[in-house]
Design goal:
Elements (H helix, E strand, L loop, with lengths): L2 H9 L5 E3 L2 E7 L3 H18 L4 E5 L2 E6 L9 H14 L5
Antiparallel strand pairs: 1-2, 2-4, 3-4
Helix pairs in contact: 2-3
Length: 94
């Protein structure tokens, strides 16, 4: 994805930023249970896409980085997954 396309795509998402050859977002939930439920729900969609994030969880926070390693950077797959993750997060973040 070329930089202009990436910026346009990111403008349609909330809270995502460019971090090197990745896009990144930090989600903050009410508690660990909601953070883990978010990850669990995302895992089902991630498997369907066969496109896996780099993510980590500490208590109520989930930090996500997306890139397409075999393409050497961000692709439409990453943008699609970011949108899916945002929609799922909205179920848990009030």
């Amino acid at each position: 994805m070329i930089p202009t396309d990436l910026q346009t795509a990111l403008s349609r998402l909330s809270g995502w930023s460019v971090k090197g050859d990745k896009i990144a977002k930090n989600y903050v939930f009410k508690n660990f249970e909601d953070a883990f439920a978010f990850m669990e729900r995302c895992a089902l969609e991630i498997e369907k896409l066969n496109h896996h994030p780099e993510w980590r969880n500490v208590y109520n926070k989930v930090d996500v980085e997306l890139t397409t390693h075999d393409a050497g950077g961000v692709t439409k797959k990453d943008i699609e997954l970011a949108g899916i993750m945002d929609r799922i997060a909205a179920l848990f973040i009030v």
